[in-house]
Amino acid sequence: MAEDQERGSDGAKAVEVYPRKILQYIEGFLISKTVFTACELGVFDMLHEAQRPLSAEELSAALGASVDGMERLLAACTGLELLTTHQENERALYSNTEEARVYLTRSSPVSLYHSIQYSSKTIYLCWHYLTDAIREGTNQYEKAFGVNSKDLFQALYRSDEEMVKFMQLMNSIWNICGKDVVMAFDLSPFKVICDLGGCSGALAKHCTSAYPQCTVTIFDLPKVVHTSREHFVTGAHSRIGFHEGDFFKDPIPKADLYILARILHDWTDQCCVELLSRVYKACNPGGAVLLVEALLFEDGSGPLTAQLYSLNMLVQTEGRERTAAQYSALLTAAGFTSVQHRFTGKTYDSVLGRKQTRD
Known about the structure:
Elements: H1 20-26, H2 28-41, H3 43-50, E1 54-55, H4 56-63, H5 67-79, E2 83-88, E3 91-96, H6 98-104, H7 113-127, H8 130-136, H9 141-145, H10 152-156, H11 160-182, E4 192-196, H12 202-210, E5 215-220, H13 222-231, E6 240-244, E7 255-261, H14 269-282, E8 283-293, H15 304-316, H16 324-334, E9 337-342, E10 349-354
Parallel strand pairs: 4-5, 4-7, 5-6, 7-8
Antiparallel strand pairs: 1-3, 2-3, 8-10, 9-10
Helix pairs in contact: 2-7, 4-5, 7-11, 11-12, 14-16
């Protein structure tokens, strides 16, 4: 048949004769690895630095690759609409599309390069064991990297290099989504903010930019704080400070607002309530907590990104992605009230819970 679908006797659409969508899903990893490899080799960086279209021969010589392999990679990136092809004297020349220049070159302020590297070198390897994760209900760090995952962040930060890679990942994510999540609610009434697990400080920078009257303290593990001070938060960020500790064990500083961005999705419900209860006790009366997570729809229908992220939480952590109602239940169990949520239209959303003026 010429058509992809035919109708049954009841008039309903039958199964597609050509399973286009399923084939796309099966081959999805081919696209991911093409993008990962082009970034890792430096294709987009080289084209940006050259400031002119380059041939496969020029790129292969500059990047230490075979001409044949480079030609195939460039063709695939063109098909993915990441590169543009130009014909000159019967040879193909390549240049970045605007989207590739903005998001795939290392020098761009909103580059996703480090996110791509973490996906390729860490997440991709964990996902090799997704079937085992689903059968066992546990993360797969031990199989993927030979690291005991009893202490989650000892596994995540299994080397200084891996810790910096994770921090660069978080930095690139908040460069894209940070402004939206901190402005989903008006946070201007909260002058003293504590960012639990604030990592690279990218979200703290968005807060101080959006709310000039606030100060932000990043509470994180000592080695994370040291790395953040060394690589991410400079002396120019005078309204951002640090507090070293483990937020499950050590005293949490007093504040008007606590931000937990991509924190609760790492943990079981029991651990989440334990942490939120500690936050509630430290929170000043009339204060609040802002959760930043990828929210699932209440009916379970999506978003697909959050559904896939929930599988990733199974493979990498002890937690899961949740609905707004599920986060509300966790906040309520810890004592917070008047819980609201906002979808930002991007990957991450915001949930705000308040502490009454008087207990």
